[in-house]
Amino acid sequence: MKKIFLGAFAIMLFAGAQAQSKQKHGGKQKHEMIAKELNLSEEQNANLKSIHEAQRKEMESLKTSSLTAEQSKAKRKELHKKYSEQSQAIFTPAQKEQMKKMKAERKEKGKGDKKFGRHGKGSKENADLQKSLNLTQDQQDRLAKMRSESKTQFEILKNDKSLTEDQKKEKMKTMKQVQHEKMKNILTKEQIEKMQTMKREHKPKVSN
Fold first, then answer.
1. CB contact set of 122 (below 8 Å; sequence gap of 6+)
2. What are the extents of the domains in the chain?
């Protein structure tokens, strides 16, 4: 089972980088970084690309098949296992160990991001916010600087081993209050009111 998971993780890393490379140069750099971390040979790179492409085509064909939802689900599971095993067979023992470390680091980073309120949607949310509030370029620049400074402070806090989890939560609460005050100095009264309205509208409703 661990072998399948590692194979799937390898395909996920490769596929993610390939998908991004179609959108921007950063995807290519990410793929090169992954290949460098695992020290992949040209042959391994080519084989992974072939596996990813074959899996993509088979997955795409399922969308137009006459299979029932249950049959389609079973087939996807079967394909996932098949290509994960193929991918796993490409790597050396040392590369498999490196992938285990990469997987563990990603998992740990995901926990940290969730704990500190970052879910990977910041860019889209910021773009929507700018559009909805009709921010000026000066406001956008000042908010971007504030977010960058806050991100650095949150990272330092997250990695501070001298504080307990409760102390970190308390300090993070204070930092958010300071951030909120800074934001009030950047936005107009109307923009703040609109932002508060948007926040209330997006707040999940508790069902009785």
1. none
2. 2-115, 122-202
